[in-house]
């Protein structure tokens, strides 16, 4: 057991490093989004355990793209869509407008990253979408949601969950007043 930054790390939780020649592509899964250009940008689709940042101006259609991906992938895959921005009813109205109606899409309206992570561990979806990272927070941090500290730490927390469970995660990040993507890029 090693102490690091006042946290205790057990050697049982440390992943073993593997020689690159021993890593196989045989079980590689890429989820096709149903959008050829997006799949091309992602190198052929969404990779398990990856974190994808979808950024843009507010109102440009990021949430709409996520729901369109949900309709396509939800035919065969379980998806958890977490919204910190819209209510369940707002999402349902948007989904109906876009003809998103599959049984594999689960909605959670939550901003507490620890509670979201617990849901991910319990439900074990094939894909998680966080809309948006600026609304998420960790209660242990004193800063408000959307601050650089909150966005950075929430993203890191969610990334560790995604990688440890081998679940891909799409995070929405809004462009700030200066024209930069707010959030994980910080």
Quick rundown:
The chain is α/β, with parallel strands linked by helices. The chain has helices at residues 36-41, 62-73, 88-97, 113-123, 148-165; strands spanning 2-4, 7-9, 30-31, 46-47, 51-56, 79-83, 105-109, 127-131, 169-174. The longest helix is centred in the last third of the chain and has 18 residues, at 148-165.
How is the topology of this model organized?
Layout: E1 2-4, E2 7-9, E3 30-31, H1 36-41, E4 46-47, E5 51-56, H2 62-73, E6 79-83, H3 88-97, E7 105-109, H4 113-123, E8 127-131, H5 148-165, E9 169-174
What is the residue-mean pLDDT, rounded to a whole number? 87
Number of helices: 5
Structural class: alpha/beta
- Low-pLDDT regions: 1-11
The proportion of residues forming helix, as a percent range, comes to 25-40%
Pattern of helices and strands: EEEHEEHEHEHEHE
Report strand %: 15-25%
Coarse shape: globular
Give me the count of strands.
Answer: 9
The neighbouring-strand order within the major sheet is 5-9-8-6-7
Distance between the termini: 32 Å
Over all CA atoms, what is the radius of gyration? Answer: 17 Å
Give the biggest sheet.
Answer: 5 strands, parallel
